[in-house]
Amino acid sequence: MLQLIGKRLAQLVPTLFFVSVLIFSLQHLMPGDPALVMAGEERDPVVIEQIRKQYGLDQPIPVQYAMWIGKVLAGDLGESMRLKVPVSELVAQKLPVTIQLAVMAMLIALVLGVATGVLSAVKRNSAWDWVVNVVGLAGISTPNFWLGIMMILLFAVHLGWLPASGYVSPFEDLQRSLATTIMPAFVLGTAIAGVIMRHTRSAMIQALDSDYVRTARAKGLSERTVVWKHAMRNALTPVITLGALEFGTLLSGAVLTEQIFSIPGFGKLIVDAVFNRDYAVVQGVVLVTATTYIVLNLLADIGYILANPRLRS
Amino acid sequence: MTPGSATASATAPDADAFVIESPGRRAWRRLRRRPAAMASLVVVLVIVACALLAPWIAPYDPTAQSWSAVRQAPSAAHWLGTDEVGRDVLSRVIWGARASLAAGVISVLIAMAAGIPLGLLAGYVGGWTDGVLGRVTDAMLAIPFLILAIALAAFLGPNLTNAMIAIGVTATPIFIRLTRGQVLAARSEEWVEAARAVGNPHWRIALRHVLPNVLPPILVQATLTIATAVIAEASLSFLGLGQQPPMPSWGSMLNSAQRFLAQAPWMAVFPGLAIFVTVLAFNVLGDGLRDALDPKGK
Amino acid sequence: MRRMVLAAALATATLGLSAAGASAQTTVRIGLAEDPDVLDPSLGRTYVGRIVFASLCDKLFDIDANLDIVPQLAVSHETSDDGLSLTIRLREGVTFHDGTPMDAEAVKYSLDRHRTMEGSFRRGELSIVENVEVVDPLTVRLALKSPFAPLLATLTDRSGMIVSPAAAEAAGDQFGTNPVCAGPFQFVERVQQDRIVLEKFDDYWNADAIDVDRVEFRPIPDSTVRLANLQSGELDLIERALATDIPTIEADADLVLESTTELGYQGMTINVANGEGATGPLAESPLVRQALNLAIDRAALNQVVFDGAFFPGNQWVNPQNAWYQDAYPVPARDVEKAKALIAEAGVATPIVVDFMVPNNPEVRQVAEVIQAMAAEAGFDMQIRVVEFATGLQEAEAGRFGAFMLAWSGRPDPDGNIYSFAHSTGPLNYGKFASEAVDAALTQARTATTQEGRMQAYSDVADVWLTEGSVLYLYHRAVLIAHTKAMQGYTPRPDGLVNLVGVTME
User: Phi/psi at C46 (nearest 5 deg)?
Assistant: First the structure.
């Protein structure tokens, strides 16, 4: 067990290395010169040259990579060219926001997804199954930004129940914080709820058809115990793994959702940085995101092993 | 998705020993018994037909502008209204099926074509190959999907083909990982071990015994990924990295509609519905296929 | 919120009020279309950044409603007869937000910082300045390399912003994270992409005119959401509302719409001599460029895309501007003449053009309408949508046939034309080169009289508007919407948000 966790931790290093190489090279393959973008209307060739020099953009690409990774290993994520602010400061500002949004979205998704998934597996091929399926799929099938704008028009403009956008920290005002994040969390959550529902359903069906459930039934256990205790336990394993995998989807979804709701989180930060070719920010934020994601995956794997005694040996 | 249950040893030998009908025929027989799956198949075929027959069934030229009929509500002349430069929304939705379907299906085919062999390789060969593939897969999965797609599409250049490639490449790791996981699970099954014990070569085991067993979850994943891919195409078109004007895709239509939600909701409603119906149909169909392909099913 | 009656009454009460507690605080929340860049006048380069600067940093000079130059931190100025030196007399008793005095030393420091700091985008604008000399504590003299008529206008923008030397010296290139200027509001905090907060500066030299205690700028890129926030009361003012949202705003009894014609323009840059894109009839023949110009129906374009709220144009300044050349009115569409010109040029149709369009839904729509209009005259405009960063590089490298390009505009006409039309201009993406135009542009800079400059621009127009590389299309209306509760708002001619004289009910 410990050995396995140790092995997974050791895998972190090459994975993060590949992440850094991937994002660094992709970014430099994209057309566009950060110094030009930064200058925008103020296209003074002398100043643009100064900026290139200042940020080492005049160096060969491998040298730039070495310079960057060297600093990262020393704990320095660099500085945003556009904002003249250390990347670590941006990360510290944005990380709590996106975590709050992601956790809320994941809670919504898990509650909706697992409950409806189990329901539709138990009532397989009934009208319930069908309704749950369609509703779950509606969540997956609706583009995030569209659902977001529709919700703003309905709840903020027409009904006036919720603020249209913006963000308030929970430490400042919990109620307002929930009010500002509930719509984006719901938009993000519904997209994943459908996925979780489908996987819960198929895992539950497999579990319900399995021998041990048949045995449990044969032993005369109540249907409720069979479903919630025996079948559920096995079915949840893939759902846990998936939950961790879907955190990646959540972050992707956050990219446009945060834009629509003006939530100052990671998603918005990365997109703006990609379009502004703010290299240090893209690299730093992607690195942090990827690390978070990989650690979550590791935790999911441990959960998987714990829930599945057969794999422990 | 779960590693094989205890029933495997009882059912699996049928597959080899008592073949009465081919798996494909059996799946089709089973699929026909499912009304939802058949209905979705019909919907998918209708959408495919729309895409193929667009020049003949669209009432108007999808790029013909009419400046005196800008943002008009649905009427007898324009069933779904007109857009911001007076083009017929119905015609654009029909033509848009081409871009969106192609983006959804082709990108997933690219992802499968790359992901399944790599997954089989990783799962079956194991060792060092598995290690490297695993780390690269982890790295790609760890970077947000849309960011990767944006970067790839911007690098390849803005057009629909490149958007499909970008989405396909981005969706590849999930197929590698899924295939690998299924292979690992299947490998430990007794009947695979038995096949190996009687001296079947590795490739034969991989193709004849392992692959058919890993396909159902991959199909489920493929249908879900088509959904993601259609929406990813919408997002890329929004960012100027997908379909180029004046040709429509549902994604780019939704994005121009965004500014007119209050005044001209039909511009957003119908391409949105088209995406919804398409994705829904693929999902229900995939679901039906999953049950129909299940070797343990009836 | 407390009703404030008169600005004058308030001014005397301000100190007492702020001591009395936060309950009487008036806050103005402003929705911005983008997240501003760094808040350092030397390093800033965005229009949206200038909106924030307008409340944060005062300048030596300002422009009034008629675009005339008026003193702000200066009280008077004098140009020597040879045009080679500019003496500026400064306002007395002005202090920076950190309490240090705004004097001649500070002005010299700020101007030198603009001119010489590594990465300063003001370098080019002020390159005409040879040196800055402190004459006495309230007088500075700028020595110029040659006479330069647009200099005063330059000092009404970021180049004229004076920063606290003490703060700038301590912060170096991090000054933008905590800017210290001499404007009506001082910097409180910034959460990137979320908000910028300013509060009233009690020792502001014109404090009587300021009634608002706190300003919050919130970047909200989606225009629908920005308007929704204004309607739901989360914001008090939004900038750059969409033309197509005008009916919604006007139908809302709680909102007021302010509209000004922008100082800039939207145009199409034609690649005439820049690299691989400069091939084909459009690049080679002025007749074909005139044909494209005549193929466009500017009125219809304005009607279709902007509900007729913008202003058709054909020059680097809008038709109401004092520098507009009346000899060249906005052309009406004439497809027959366009076809005749193409025939005269002896070119076969369709004329294929690689039409690069920045990725902005409004501009993309404009491009699609132009595509359809130009097709009728024999052009095949192949739209290629590019994101901002890619577009800049493609433009730089000359990989385009035509390019939709916007310019945010400057108060002096020189800022709208020189860099685009001069053969060495950095924004001359089409690489147009004409000795006559170069000479006339230089003449317009050095001429000392209004008439002399006007004549020079007339000479520019004769060449540039018939064979040049920019086709001007329209001028945007700068649309600012605010709530009825906000009183006393007066629009600025440059479209920036003006909080002087504003009271909140």
Answer: -115, 155
pLDDT digits (tens, 9 = 90+) for B173-190: 989 988 888 888 777 777
Q: Does B155 contact A153 at a Cβ distance shorter than 8 Å? A: no
Contact of B153 with B236, CB cutoff 8 Å = yes
**C302/B contact by beta carbon, under 8 A:** no
- A163 with A282, same domain: the answer is yes
Specify burial of residue A293 (Cβ count, 10 A radius: 0-12, 13-18, 19+): buried
Residue A86 lies in a domain: no
Residue B281 to residues B34, B48, C156: CA-CA distances in angstroms? 14, 12, 61
One domain for residues A152 and A209: yes
Task: Tell me how far CA of residue B234 lies from CA of B24, B275, C192, in angstroms.
Answer: 34, 9, 28
* Contact between A203 and A212 (Cβ < 8 Å): no
The C-alpha atoms of residue C327 and residue C460 are separated, in whole angstroms, by 12
A84 found inside a domain: no
Cα–Cα distance for residue pair A142/C208, rounded to 1 Å = 53
> Do residues A129 and A214 make contact, with C-beta atoms less than 8 angstroms apart?
no
Which DSSP string corresponds to A253-313? HHHHHHHHHT--SHHHHHHHHHHHT-HHHHHHHHHHHHHHHHHHHHHHHHHHHHH-HHHH-
Question: Hey, what amino acid is at C483?
Answer: T
* C219, HSE (Cβ side, Cα atoms, 13 Å): 23
Instruction: Check pLDDT > 50 for residue C12.
Output: no
C504 bridge partner residues: C486
Residues in chain B: 298
User: To which H or E segment does residue C312 belong?
Assistant: strand C311-312
Residue C97 contacts residue C187 (beta carbons within 8 Å) = yes
Contact residues, B window 38-97, toward A, CB-based 8 Å cutoff: none
**Residue A56 domain boundaries:** 2-73
**Nearest Cβ partner of A37 from C388, C394, C407?**
C388
ipTM of the complex: 0.81
Reading the block at residue A235, the tokens are 């079915």
Question: CA geometry: angle at C402 spanning C398 and C407, to 5°?
Answer: 90
How far apart are alpha carbons A36 and A163 in whole angstroms?
37
Looking at the fold, whether A245 and A100 belong to one and the same domain comes out as yes
CA distance C236 to B188: 66
A76 CB neighbour count, 10 Å cutoff: 15
Q: Write out chain C residues lying below 8 Å of A43, CB-based.
A: 419, 426-427
Report the number of distinct structural domains present in chain A. Answer: 2
Report the residue from A31, A195, A255 with minimal CB separation from B224.
A195
Distances from the Cα of C60 to the Cαs of B283, C23, C73, C208, in angstroms?
A: 65, 35, 4, 19
pLDDT digits (tens, 9 = 90+) for C225-260: 899 889 888 899 999 999 989 999 999 999 999 999
**Residue A146 and residue A115 in one domain:** yes
Task: Summarize pLDDT for C423-433 with one digit per residue, the tens.
Answer: 999 999 999 99
CB contact under 8 A, A37 and C419: no
Check if B9 contacts A (Cβ < 8 Å): no
SS3 of residue B159 by DSSP: coil
Report how far residue C483's alpha carbon sits from residue C479's, in angstroms, rounded to the nearest whole number.
14
Whether A31 and A173 map to the same domain: the answer is: no
pLDDT of C15 above 50: no
User: Residue C40, Cα to own-chain centre: how many angstroms?
Assistant: 17
Domains along chain B with CATH numbers: 35-58+81-293 (1.10.3720.10)
Q: What's the DSSP call for residue C328? A: S
Secondary structure (3-state) at C307? coil
Round to whole Å and give the CA distance between C434 and C422.
8
Q: Are C167 and C180 in contact (CB under 8 A)?
A: yes
- Please list every residue in chain B whose beta carbon sits closer than 8 Å to the beta carbon of residue C223: 259
